[in-house]
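Section handout, structural biology tutorial.
Before the tutorial, make sure you can parse a SMILES string by hand: atoms, branches in parentheses, ring closures as digits. In the record below the ligand is zinc ion, and the chain has 190 residues. In the tutorial you will relate the predicted structure tokens back to the input. Do not try to memorize them.
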Amino acid sequence: MNQDEIIQLFKESNALLSGHFRLSSGRHSDVYYEKFTLLKQPAICTRLCQQMAENFAESEAVTVVGPTTGGIIIAYEVARYLGRESIYAEAGENGRVFKRGFSLEKGQKVLIVDDVLTTGRSVFEVISLVNSYGAEIVGIGELLDRSNGTVKFDYPYKPLATVTADSWEPDECPLCARAVAITQPGSRKF
Ligand SMILES: [Zn+2]
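Predicted structure of the complex:
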């Protein structure tokens, strides 16, 4: 699947909405992404994870790691296609930790995956967790990058799709200026 087909899949699943939205930050945007609208649809989610697995088929990753909560689903599905194991990193007091007996060995090849990249904070936390074990990060996969290209990694990074999402303070919003009706995501059914 190419980027256009990926974006189309997001739109078909109603996970990626175009319009005029009031974000939780108070800013207005023309794009809204509701990741759990996608993650609750296995038939679509699994197609995206298969594509992600294909993108890293040559990576020799032994273990796929994702951060809670969406990353659990992505890591599991990608690992299933690759025939590898999946574990997940949970929130600890200082960044991410492995619980439930999960661990990595020195030099173990690890693929890090997550659903949507905005600031990259979750992934950076997983990177430092994996590095603390001396494991080797062979790649980073995301379903969707909406960082507008501002987040960079020192590892092979392959988002399935990137979107440019503009946002504005209400008094600078061009959609408000054109009197486009605004939606508060989560407040009603689309
Ligand atoms: Zn507006």
